[in-house]
Amino acid sequence: MTRTWHHQADVVVVGSGGAGLAAASAAVAEGASVIVLEAAEQAGGTTRRSGGALWIPNNSLMRAAGLSDPRDDALSLMAHLAFPSLHDPQAPRFGISQEAYDLLEAFYDHGSDVVDALTAAGAIDLIILPPLGFGTSPISDPDYHAELPENAAPLGRVLTAQAPPGSFEWPGVFLADGLIAHVQAQGVPILLGHRVVEVIDGPPGEVTGVVAVHEGAEVLVRARRGVVFASGGFSHDRDKVLSLTRGPIFGTGAVPTGTGAFIDIASRLGADHGNLANGFFFQVALEAALEHGGAISRTDAFVFLPYGDSMIIVDKHGRRIVNEKAMYHERTQSHFVYTYNEFPNLVQIMIWDDPVMQEPTFWPWRGGVPFPGQTSPFVLTGNTLAELGDAIDARLQSLRGQQGIAAAVGPREMLAPDFATNLAATVARFNDFATTGVDLDFHRGETPLEPVWQGPSRGSPNRTMTPLSNAGPYYALLLGAATLDTCGGPRINASGEVLRPDGSAIGGLFGAGNCIASPTGQGYFGAGGTIGPAVVFGYLAGRAAAQRSVGHGHGHP
Question: Which domain holds residue 194?
């Protein structure tokens, strides 16, 4: 069939976040011509909204600082986090499948080289994420999972984009903009407003191009060697989130173009899928998610680490349900508990006292707690705990029926009749724990990172806990579960090739980032646990696509 191609390149990249831009950079480095197609009107994807960190094992910067990251220990750690129900430190491949092991192995073996190649090309400018001031290491703060026995390198894996002095922008802006500037300087066009809706098959069954929609018209783009999808997850497709994700999700910080188009496109080509139930999770101010049906735009609504030493999180019965200082990906999954035909922790309530509210220290993890003198429409207050309970109940009543992405404030999301009584008992029990320094219920403050990222504190002997004040005012914030993005989709191999159920590759089709079955599985390896693997596998996919001979996927003009 004769086609009129509107654009042609050796490699076509779909998506301009970290994975797509790394793929474009790698393909250019191999001498290939590249076109990047971006559905949004701004390049950078969700990477541009992020903290700009990359979790890279055994990276050259940590080695230069005298830190080692032994291979077997790192692979065991990643296997533990990605597949906790399978992990066995003594078993071959640590108990996981050969396919899963191969991907983790590729990440460890190539991660540092990819970062170094992008640095040498001038695409990125990274430093080890510096300590925030309450730890003991001058190099970095501990890893999210520094307490695990297989974590032999708890310092130095987290790299971050350098930000200009005095900047208050999230570093993801500088990471994305640096990659964008680099690929554009190499002559790579980034075509904005081009949503890819289909791929084009050549006679041998190989992918030879894509169909995009731009301003209502179809645009055919030829790929002489391969197509790399890096189009993000499906967090903004309500049906997919409800059907596939394993927990009730109110909101997402992913860019609105993330609707999982690659799942649909690859399915029509016979691709196998994996990891669809998982995402990268965090807690969000519930009302910020409800404002726009799940799309979160306010950065002060991201509750990565609940702020304050005299602060607790309770359920609708007024009982603590989680270690409030656990890292966000793990802590958020407490919302997914399902018992007796309901999600009892669907909406959670963060409560703190006036000393926390008046703490003036700048801290990146203040989340929903305003600075002194500032206000938030989401923060409730009461002069007593009983008054606070009344305010919470009234707010829940006002939100009834409002829906996020795949969860709603229903009739069961109201305070229980015994809330006030239980809350008083909960506060008394927590205050006893704070006095002794030992949280007998949830072990708050016992990992290496929790006391460090607590930030400013009056707590002693456990700096994550101080007794709540006996006098008000008190404050509360309603919390819901959210995704940074989903991380399931077509399965890939270590070169980024998309696979069929029998393990064979679909010729000319590659994927990386949040649109594929993430090599990280159920886990979140640490700060930069999304962008690190995305950039590494994006680079590997772009390189593999560029190295295909022009004879493959050439199509017919």
Answer: 7-277+487-547
Burial class (CB in 10 A: 0-12, 13-18, 19+), 189: middle
Give the Cβ contact number of residue 64 at 10 Å: 10
Domain count, the chain: 2
CB atoms < 10 A from the CB of 533, how many?
30
- Asked whether residue 1 carries a pLDDT value surpassing 60, the answer given is no
Give residue for tokens 């030879």: 208
Distance CA 485, CA 250 (A): 12
CA pair distance 393, 216, nearest whole angstrom: 47
Given the structure tokens 């669809």, which residue do they identify? 276
Tell me which residue of 28, 38, 12 sits closest to 510, measured CA to CA. Answer: 12
Mean pLDDT of the chain: 96
Confidence at residue 555, expressed as pLDDT on a 0 to 100 scale = 37
Place 551 in a pLDDT band, splitting at 50, 70 and 90.
Answer: low
Three-point CA angle 526, 528, 531, nearest 5°: 135
Cβ neighbors of 243 (< 8 A, separation 6 or more) are none
Task: List the structure tokens of 372.
Answer: 């002194």
Instruction: To the nearest 10°, report the CA torsion of 546, 549, 555, 557.
Output: 90
Same domain for 266 and 286? Answer: no
Integer Cα distance of 15 and 537 in angstroms = 14
**In the predicted structure, residue 556 carries a pLDDT above the cut 70:** no
